[in-house]
Design brief:
This protein is of the alpha/beta class. Helices cover 30% and strands 26% of the residues. It is built from 14 helices and 22 strands. The strands form five sheets. A nine-stranded mixed beta sheet has the order 5-6-7-4-8-9-3-13-12, sandwiched between helices. It has a seven-stranded mixed beta sheet with strand order 14-20-17-16-15-18-19, with helices on both faces. It has a two-stranded antiparallel ribbon with strand order 1-2. Strand 1 (2-3) and strand 2 form a beta hairpin. 40% of the residues are buried.
């Protein structure tokens, strides 16, 4: 690939073959990139964006559902790509405000859909990149579509996503909504053809096989998903919509207390986490104690507390033995957290945000194995056969379940500052 920069020499840069046409094509208004993990779709979007803004003076907007996630994803990726393209002499990255400025006057700005007030004006914007668009609400997408109207430059929206449930707005809008008797494109046709144009929308499908730079052991990790999580395998490895299975944690298994103890002893660098969900009178109070084998992506659930219709003083007495451990609890109950801290517990609030239920469930699903002690009967009862709720069309609702799993909430809270090793990869050599 060559990039023509006014006042400078041409820059040569290597691309994965399957993305060559995508990077150079600007003939369409909407670009939908659908792909599995490690396919390098986000990487090539960054290349496409930088190339365009080096060649033309434009203002681009990068959007994610949660603004706080942008710094460690899109912003860092753009910086890595700029360095790899050796164009950092012509681009300046700033953090306050978070922007990318080009010598020719081009700019990239960043916004989160969790702060919609900041999206009221898109003055001067002619290109929008919506990363992980399946996490963004359709109402937000419509807001951007309605406001993107540069008077002199061509307008473009680039959307990138892993192909999640067919109940998601992305599938219903760009492919088909059976309930509404609406069809644009059969996704199976896209999997076969890989690149398609329908109307003014450019469709691009990719898998890790399209990424020449990804290491073989990474592909092996994705292949392993077929055995312990076929639903995730469909999305991550094959890059296909439609999570058909309803079991939330197919990798969940039960072992004896003795086996759990021996396994935990064998962890090289164990990471301890503890979470608490407040139930008070009508619901259940749950505490879950966890140990993480980070290297092998195994979550051990080795102890629990579970009760209902008890006061805080009663619960405090019940779990008094755990005063010395750090417990992350539901941030929606600051008074309860304050009480337990007054009683000598090391308790801190977790973090919640719009869409956190789905995000945290996906985090737990990324563990290769979830191993639970047989003594934790309440965890077993709630999680071993926990299934996703489904809508009237039989499609999975990814943040709703057949029951209200209080132990899962406790796990969410306990893990809120921990990230499972992301199979999407984390370095430029893997081409994200």
């Amino acid at each position: 690939m060559e990039v023509k920069i006014a006042e400078t020499k041409q820059v040569e840069f290597s691309l994965n073959d399957h993305f060559f046409d995508f990077v150079h094509d600007w003939d369409h208004k909407i670009y939908l990139t659908v792909g599995g993990y490690g396919s390098s779709k986000s990487y090539h979007i960054a290349v496409k964006l930088i190339k365009k803004l080096l060649e033309e003076k434009r203002k681009a907007l990068v959007v994610r559902e949660v603004f706080d996630t942008i710094r460690d994803s899109c912003y860092d990726l753009l910086m890595e790509v700029a360095e790899a393209m050796e164009v950092t002499d012509y681009i300046t990255f700033t953090t306050s405000p978070m922007q990318v400025r080009f010598r020719n006057g081009s700019r990239i700005i960043f916004k989160g859909m969790d702060k919609p007030a900041k999206l009221k004006s898109l003055n001067g914007v002619s290109i929008v990149w919506i990363e992980e668009c399946s996490e963004v609400k359709y109402a937000g997408i419509k807001e951007i579509l309605g406001r993107l109207r540069h008077p002199t430059l061509s307008n473009h929206i680039i959307l990138s996503t892993n192909p999640v449930s067919k109940s998601n707005w992305v599938y219903k809008y760009f492919f088909q909504d059976k309930a509404a008797d609406y069809k644009v494109l059969d996704d199976e046709e896209l999997y076969q053809n890989r690149i398609m144009v329908v109307g003014n929308t450019y469709y691009h499908h990719s898998t890790v096989d399209d990424n020449y730079f990804v290491p073989a052991d990474y592909i092996a990790q994705l292949d392993e998903l077929q055995q312990h999580d076929p639903d995730l395998y469909r999305v991550a490895r094959k890059g296909r919509f439609g999570i058909n299975g309803r079991l939330v944690f197919p990798q969940f298994e039960v072992r004896t207390e003795r086996e759990i103890t021996e396994c935990i002893k064998g962890i090289t660098n164990p990471i301890e986490k503890n979470g608490m969900d407040f139930g008070f009178v009508t619901s259940y109070n749950a505490v879950v104690r966890m140990m993480i084998d980070h290297d092998n992506k195994i979550l051990y659930l080795y102890d629990e507390y579970y009760s209902r219709d008890k006061t805080d003083p009663e619960i405090a007495r019940d779990i008094e033995k755990w005063k010395g451990i750090l417990i992350k609890a539901d941030c929606a109950e600051p008074k309860a957290i304050r009480y337990y801290k007054q009683q000598g517990f090391r308790m801190k609030p977790c973090k919640k945000f719009q869409g956190s239920r789905e995000v945290y469930t996906k985090k737990v699903k990324r563990f290769r194995s979830i191993v639970c002690s047989e003594r934790c009967q309440n965890i077993i009862n709630e999680l071993k056969e926990l299934t996703f709720a489904v809508d009237k069309d039989g499609e999975i609702i990814e943040d709703e379940f057949n029951i209200d799993p209080h132990t899962l909430s406790a796990i969410w809270y306990g893990l809120d500052d921990y990230e499972v090793s992301d199979l999407k990869g984390g370095s430029i050599s893997v081409l994200k």
